[in-house]
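Lab meeting tomorrow. Look over both lines:
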Amino acid sequence: MVFKETAIEGVYVIEPHVFNDARGYFFEAWKHEEFTAHVGPVQFIQDNESKSSYGVLRGLHYQKGDLSQAKLVRVIKGRVLDVAVDLRRKSPTFGQHVMVELNDENKRQFFIPRGFAHGFLVLSDEAIFTYKVDNVYAPQAEAGIRWNDPELGIKWPIDPDLVVTSEKDLKQPLLRDAEVFE
């Protein structure tokens, strides 16, 4: 695997070595020793999966405090635009974001450490999205930021009228009003 740190410290794009032949392909999606050597120690405890259709935008979500989560995300089927927003108030990149396309062809993975909001937009007819987390889901710690907050400057590549999101995500606060990490 090739680990590429992004413009925001601690956020990585991971590109696997894919072996293709007449039968199909094979790659290592997760290797503890290699991940720890490049990113550092993270103990993932759960795998999650979602299925969504074109225009679905999930996010920008995070969990607060000691219940925050690091995530290692990838796409099994389809294409998504994945985004991580730095919510660490004391970080020099506070409020900035990293955006990467994940799809079933490039097989990239995206590592988002604790202290970030995360979201993705489906660009294909359908996408199956999977991710590892290092902490349990805790509804009492759940938080979010509005996906179209102008202060974030995220350039989503589809018409906002075509975005399909939850009622809850439509009501998320702007960054300036959100609870962030100290």
Remarks:
- Residues 77 and 151 are 31 Å apart (CA to CA).
- The chain has a mean pLDDT of 96.
